[in-house]
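Model it.
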Amino acid sequence: MNKFLKILGGIFLFLLVGGGIAIAVLYFKSLPLEKNATSYFNENIPLIVESWDSEALIKRATPELLQQASKKQMQEMFTWLSKLGKIKKVEVPSVVITTGTYPNTPYNGTWATCDADAQFEAGAAKIRMVLKRNGDSWLIMGFHVNSPALMATNG
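Modeled.
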């Protein structure tokens, strides 16, 4: 019985140390991606929302995003979003890096979900930009803006 407990303890210790090493490796691999995604978000958000230019989004979009909405639909969406007015401030985004299959889709890869609070002339908003890793850079897979101010101007 004593030998069995020693073997079981050794296996448990091996799994614990191995798991800790795996978590550390994944953490340190995701740090540069997180910083890179944050920089991409900070550089591109002003280009997209400053004048609510749908072409600025289209130039940075993944093929998957371009399949989901036509240029006309994107222009209409940006016309609606332009009711928020000029951007006053965007907070530093919180970024979550994920690798694998994007939820509820057949798409595989490395993803960054960037969420940031923003302030526009018409009021506060939350911006979510979903990025897909493309080689050494990112492309935009999803772009969402939620604001109570949009509901007030709807109609």
